[in-house]
User: Fold this.
Amino acid sequence: MEQAVVKQLDSLVKLSELDNKIAVLKKQLEKIPVAIAEKREEFRTEERALENAEEELSAMKKDHREAEGALDGHLEKIRKLTEQTSLVKTNKEYQTLLGEIDVFKGQQDGYEEKILELMEKSGEVERQIRVAKEEVDREKAEFEKEETKLLAEGEALRQEMETHESARGEILPAIEQANLDTYLKVKNLRGDAVAEVREELCLGCRVSVPPQQFADVIMKEAIQTCSHCQRILYSPQVVEEKKEG
Assistant:
């Protein structure tokens, strides 16, 4: 058993473990801004509903003011026409004025009905707005709480990743360049570059390893790679023996 090979393999296994942990942490970190955006969108949905209701109420109030203005105009016209009825000299003129008054009164009824309808609808919308504001306040509080939690989780993940990256940096100088090149090439191809061999089986690709190569992996005279997946092969027993020695 070549101790230099054992040391190389030990370092490669540790590097692989660290890279796998870093990859997991990166995926978890990538999910955090997505989760925050989803929570923010839920909150914004409630906000938009409130904004729409407030715009609807504003439009109703405008219609209400316009209807009241129109009603006041009609009442003024009715008042003036009524005053004129005492000044006309003929029955025909009198009947004409009464006809005009009836027309304006009919329009008056329409405006009054519209005003009453707008008042009822405005009251319902105002009630909906009060409920919506309560919901928005609740959603906002929940969002801010969840955002704070997720940001804290993200910071913890970043710190953990920095620790692993620091440890990775300490391992790299111990690995020979040729072995490191093989490791990086396979890692880019497969996602992970080191695989355990157990009972003549590469656990990376689940393909059998020839008996002689399996024996070479155990003896650890040289770095061995899987002929199928190209991963660097190792046996935990070898690493453990090195540690015990």
